[in-house]
Amino acid sequence: MSRSARGPCPRPEREDGSVTTDADFQPADVLRQIDAATEQLLRTASRFTDADVRAPSLLPDWSRGHVLTHLARNADGGRHLLIWARTGVETPEYPSMAAREEQIEAGAGRSAHALVADLRDSAARFAAEYRRMETAAWSRTVRWTGGQERPAARAADSRLSEVLVHHVDLDAGYAPAQWPADFVRAMLGRVVASFGARSDAPALRLHADDTGTRYDVGTAGPATSVHGTEASLLAWLMGRSPGTDLTVPDGAALPELPFLY
User: Fold this and answer.
1) Segments of the chain scoring below 70 in pLDDT
2) Fewer beta carbons below 10 Å: N end or C end of the chain?
3) Distance of CA 98 to the CA centre of its chain
4) Helix (H) / strand (E) containing 141
């Protein structure tokens, strides 16, 4: 699955024509958000029985055990990137994409207790390395397994999005409406930008009724206007909602979206 990227969000236009800007990266603030999201995730996961972790998640072909294992290995991968940025010693996120998939498959069938312990311990390792980072290290370039070269700060935002989005994928009562508003606003801008760079994305005019913000997506034909909260718009764009809580003028159907995340 794709990864959230750290960087300036598009400057979304409000209905009154003004624009908003993305705040500068603040390591301590992002870590507080990661820690809070992780605690919520652990509270959910700690209730799982062995049968629960073998049940399907919302992701195709993945059980909850797959999702939990992925989140643990993602924490380790993010920690490796932070070590690389801090020390200057190349420390790959994963040995390869194939190795990443093998690790997830190998760990998915463990007991609920083992999965939760791994999730907790890997998150603690990530947070400990995060706290070792000096200010200058966040701007150093590191390379993701997919070959993308980005500032290390992107590993922080990526981890936050992984925890929040995959918590929904566990299908255990946590929903997009519970995502923090700051995360939703930032992530929605990034997702809109990602769709805008794709030739297979439909033209959309998204109206966030709760904030008065408008987002324009794509140029392929006349734009379809879609109304909803920022969280419901983001969930639909990311494939975490069928969009039943969104509205389209004249009752038209929502357009089909390409897979993003």
Assistant:
1) 1-23, 220, 261
2) N
3) 21
4) strand 141-143
Structural tokens at position 112:
């609920």
Measured in degrees and rounded to the nearest 5, phi and psi for residue 228 equal: 175, 180
- Residue 15 DSSP symbol: T
pLDDT of residue 16: 38
CA dihedral 83, 84, 88, 89 (to 10 degrees): 100
Max Cα distance, the chain (Å): 58
CATH topology of domain 179-251: Nonspecific Lipid-transfer Protein; Chain A (3.30.1050)
> What SS3 class is residue 178?
helix
**8 SS3 class:** coil
| Domain ranges, ordered by start, for the chain | 27-174, 179-251
Domain at 27-174, CATH class: mainly alpha
4 to each of 54, 106, 214, how far by Cα in Å? 27, 25, 21
In 10 A of CB 47, how many CB atoms? 11
179-251 and 27-174 share a CATH fold: no
- The set of residues, in sequence order, having a beta carbon less than 8 Å from that of 247 and lying 6+ positions away, is 226, 227, 228
pLDDT of residue 221: 73
Q: Which residues contact 207 (CB under 8 A, 6 or more apart)?
A: 15, 213, 214, 225, 226, 227, 228
Strands 213-217 and 149-151 come out as: unpaired
CA gap 56, 60 in Å, rounded:
8
Contacting residues for 67 by C-beta, under 8 A, at least 6 apart: 57, 59, 166, 169, 170
CA-to-CA separations, 26 to 36, 39, 68, in angstroms, rounded:
16, 20, 27
User: Which residue shows structure tokens 């991968």?
Assistant: 77
